[in-house]
Specification:
Blueprint: E1 10-23, E2 27-28, E3 32-33, E4 39-49, E5 57-65, E6 72-73, E7 80-84, E8 87-89, E9 98-102, E10 110-116, E11 122-130, E12 134-145
Antiparallel strand pairs: 1-12, 2-11, 3-11, 4-10, 4-12, 5-6, 5-9, 5-11, 7-8, 7-10
Length: about 160
């Protein structure tokens, strides 16, 4: 098997158990270690949620940190590529790390991805509760893209 194939160049991590979640406060996905990675792709699957209003919903926020404990919102849109069902979409508020507020029924039954390309070692998605309680089906995964190094040159992606 070639070291340039997909299997040898990615790692897949479950960051949030696929389940019906009832959140009365923020719910953080597991932080993903991006050391020795080109980028980390966070994937959030959203099923049906029960709350869709401007004052009561879940917000998807991307965060980063150096130590896997003190996370802050990513505030540079150049460090994130966001998609909804595979369509590249602008973050709702890049100054606060807000990818998307799930405040309409049309936001249900979708796959949201955020590729983190920043300089911090760890990144994660925070499901931020806006209101009192949200119940919904959520799952989280991440793909670490490592790319093979050429044994002779040590250069990433060299063949």
């Amino acid at each position: 098997m070639s070291h340039s194939d997909l299997t040898n160049n990615i790692g897949i991590i479950q960051t949030l158990d696929p389940d019906a979640q009832t959140t009365t406060s923020d719910l953080a996905c597991t932080g993903v270690d991006g050391a020795n990675c080109e980028s980390v792709l966070h994937i959030i699957g959203v099923g049906v949620t029960n709350e869709h209003s401007a004052n009561h919903h879940t917000r998807l926020v991307i965060q980063e940190c150096d130590d896997d404990s003190t996370y802050v919102d990513v505030t540079d849109a150049n460090m994130v590529e966001f998609t909804i069902d595979g369509v590249v979409t602008a973050m709702e508020d890049a100054t606060t790390g807000l990818l998307k507020a799930l405040d309409a029924a049309a936001d249900d039954d979708k796959v949201y991805t955020a590729e983190y390309k920043g300089q911090k070692r760890y990144s994660r998605i925070l499901l931020e509760e806006n209101g009192t309680t949200t119940t919904g089906d959520f799952s989280g995964h991440a793909i670490q893209w490592t790319r093979a190094r050429n044994a002779a040159s040590g250069v990433l992606g060299a063949n």
